[in-house]
Amino acid sequence: MANIKSAVKRIQVAERNRLRNKSYKSAVKTLTKSYYAALGEYATDPSDEKKQAVDSSMSAAFSKIDKAVKRGSIHKNAAARRKSRIAHALKKHETPS
């Protein structure tokens, strides 16, 4: 344990930031998994309702990723990579019109 008052404060700040970052990263992972689950259902049996579910879960995942970047929890290039993978996964399952 630190003896200096400023060091104690820095430990508290670091812990607070760690928990906030963990929360954002966990939420991004959860939303990404739910997106892939919805995409799997859509791939097995394409329908308009399942397409809307995929689109809404994709939107939610993109939104949470962007918020995590804004807060500094995820690097912007890592966020771009995640969003690209999500979009590419949908593109593989869509039928050409």
Description:
With 97 residues, this protein is mainly α. It has one domain. The protein has helices at 5-44, 48-71, 76-93. Helix 1 (5-44) packs antiparallel against helix 2, helix 1 (5-44) packs parallel to helix 3 and helix 2 (48-71) runs antiparallel to helix 3 (76-93). It is elongated and about 65 Å long. The model has no long low-confidence stretch (mean pLDDT 94).
Topology diagram in text:
Elements: H1 5-44, H2 48-71, H3 76-93
Helix pairs in contact: 1-2, 1-3, 2-3
In short:
With 97 residues, this protein is mainly alpha-helical.
Notable characteristics:
97 residues, mainly alpha, 3 helices, elongated
Counting DSSP E segments of at least 2 residues, the number of strands comes to 0
Q: Assembly type of the shown chains? A: single chain
Described by the principal axes of the CA atoms, the overall outline is elongated
What number of structural domains do the residues give?
Answer: 1
Poorly predicted ranges (pLDDT <50, ≥5 residues)? none
**Main pleated sheet:** none
- Radius of gyration in whole Å, from Cα? 18 Å
Order of helices and strands: HHH
Structural class: mainly alpha
CA(first)-CA(last) distance? 63 Å
- Report the helical percentage: over 70%
Provide a count of the helices.
3
The whole-number mean of residue pLDDT values reads: 94
β-sheet strand percentage: under 5%
